[in-house]
Amino acid sequence: MTLSKKKNTEIAEIVAKNIKNRRLSLEMSRETLAKGAKLDVSTLSLVESGKRWPSAECVERIARALGVTAWSLYIPSEME
Q1: Half-sphere exposure of 27 (CA within 13 A, CB side)
Q2: DSSP secondary structure, 11-41, as one string
Q3: 36: exposed, middle or buried (C-beta count within 10 Å: 0-12, 13-18, 19+)?
Q4: 32: burial class by Cβ within 10 Å (0-12, 13-18, 19+)?
């Protein structure tokens, strides 16, 4: 795996964890978040599991639905 692929994988994992953790902290279902972000539930599931890299627009819509800024979803949590 090249360094850039490794970094992209790490970033995708951070974004995925942050989305899922924020959603769960709000006691929000995946269906509710998907609806608020105008995404299919299956797409959101893939993003949360780190199996799909979301576009910047997708991250922005998810962030808005979660009530956070998009950039905050890229910051590793202190718990890691």
Answers
A1: 0
A2: HHHHHHHHHHHHHHHTT--HHHHHHHHT--H
A3: middle
A4: middle
| Length of the chain, in residues | 80
Domain 3-74 superfamily per CATH: lambda repressor-like DNA-binding domains (1.10.260.40)
Domain locations in the chain as residue ranges: 3-74
- Decide if 70 contacts 59 (C-beta within 8 A): yes
Q: pTM value?
A: 0.87
> What is the per-residue pLDDT across 34-74, written as a single tens digit (0 to 9) for each?
999 999 999 999 999 988 889 999 999 999 999 999 999 99
User: DSSP assignment, residue 76?
Assistant: P
